[in-house]
Amino acid sequence: MLELTPNTLTAMLLVLAMLVIASLSQWLLSSRLSADAHQELRQRINSWWIMVLVVFTALMIGRTASLIFFTILSFIALREFFSILPVRLTDRRLILALYLMIPVHYYWIATDWYGMFTIFIPVYLFLMIPFGLLLLGETKGFIRAVASYQWAVMTTVFAISHVAYLLMLPAENNPAGGGVGLVLYLVFLTQFNDVAQYIWGKTFGNRKIVPGISPNKTWEGFLGGIATTTLLGALLAPWLTPLLWWQGLFAGLLIGVAGFVGDLTVSAVKRDLRIKDTGRLIPGHGGILDRIDSLMYTAPLFFHFLRYTAY
């Protein structure tokens, strides 16, 4: 079982308290919102309850359960990515092989083999994908297929797996929060950054950043969200991580900017494919990729910032 410190337990209780407040708020606002708006808000909050309880349960049960949870998450995310890509029929055997590589990659995390973890996908799997496609003998769409499959595995498996590897970092280096505190810090700030940028944008946003990709993204939302996330990062850093408050400023800034880029990147993918959401798995939120788009960018950057700063 992963050791839960008083700080991490308090953080979990605060998140649950925020969800209780959100649930009460949507009930009180039911008479002021349209039926469709109220239903969407209720679906979003109910989905957050399910997602938070699943993550908290995995973290509380233990490291093995957490690794299994992230393995399944990567599998679902990769499957969703392939479901929206124009996949060639001849590539199905290679795609099956890529699914089988997911538990292999997470095995390196389970055994704390950092060297293999860092090169297995970016080096070995990147070389295997074009070779596997060559063996299938189909050259039409070859470059597009190679690039699409490589990027899909990088984002949904390699990038997300950095969240799981936070649990393997030495707990003695972070007596305040342990591995669980690091995960809570990263995930909470990443999701809070999305919410903060949305609120700042809706309240003060006028100047659009890239209207051709995401019409709702404004400079006011971007800067306001990053400022809020940076300050919160400094506040939470000594509480959940081994970082000092001023290092937390850099961590918060990193998460704020990277989260924005991740969100915008997946928006560009959806624009290219002419779809609104990447899936319908999470009511009110779309698909898994819609929910972890920011985390795909914040996780590896925060992990390496933390590892070379405090470990």
UniProtKB/TrEMBL annotation:
<feature type="transmembrane region" description="Helical">
    <location>
        <begin position="94"/>
        <end position="110"/>
    </location>
</feature>
<feature type="transmembrane region" description="Helical">
    <location>
        <begin position="245"/>
        <end position="266"/>
    </location>
</feature>
<keyword id="KW-1133">Transmembrane helix</keyword>
<dbReference type="GO" id="GO:0016024">
    <property type="term" value="P:CDP-diacylglycerol biosynthetic process"/>
</dbReference>
<comment type="pathway">
    <text>Phospholipid metabolism; CDP-diacylglycerol biosynthesis; CDP-diacylglycerol from sn-glycerol 3-phosphate: step 3/3.</text>
</comment>
<protein>
    <recommendedName>
        <fullName>Phosphatidate cytidylyltransferase</fullName>
        <ecNumber>2.7.7.41</ecNumber>
    </recommendedName>
</protein>
<dbReference type="InterPro" id="IPR000374">
    <property type="entry name" value="PC_trans"/>
</dbReference>
<dbReference type="GO" id="GO:0005886">
    <property type="term" value="C:plasma membrane"/>
</dbReference>
<keyword id="KW-0812">Transmembrane</keyword>
<comment type="similarity">
    <text>Belongs to the CDS family.</text>
</comment>
<dbReference type="GO" id="GO:0004605">
    <property type="term" value="F:phosphatidate cytidylyltransferase activity"/>
</dbReference>
<dbReference type="GO" id="GO:0009273">
    <property type="term" value="P:peptidoglycan-based cell wall biogenesis"/>
</dbReference>
<feature type="transmembrane region" description="Helical">
    <location>
        <begin position="221"/>
        <end position="239"/>
    </location>
</feature>
<feature type="transmembrane region" description="Helical">
    <location>
        <begin position="48"/>
        <end position="73"/>
    </location>
</feature>
<feature type="transmembrane region" description="Helical">
    <location>
        <begin position="180"/>
        <end position="200"/>
    </location>
</feature>
<keyword id="KW-0548">Nucleotidyltransferase</keyword>
<feature type="transmembrane region" description="Helical">
    <location>
        <begin position="116"/>
        <end position="137"/>
    </location>
</feature>
<keyword id="KW-0808">Transferase</keyword>
<feature type="transmembrane region" description="Helical">
    <location>
        <begin position="149"/>
        <end position="168"/>
    </location>
</feature>
<feature type="transmembrane region" description="Helical">
    <location>
        <begin position="9"/>
        <end position="28"/>
    </location>
</feature>
<keyword id="KW-0472">Membrane</keyword>
<dbReference type="Pfam" id="PF01148">
    <property type="entry name" value="CTP_transf_1"/>
</dbReference>
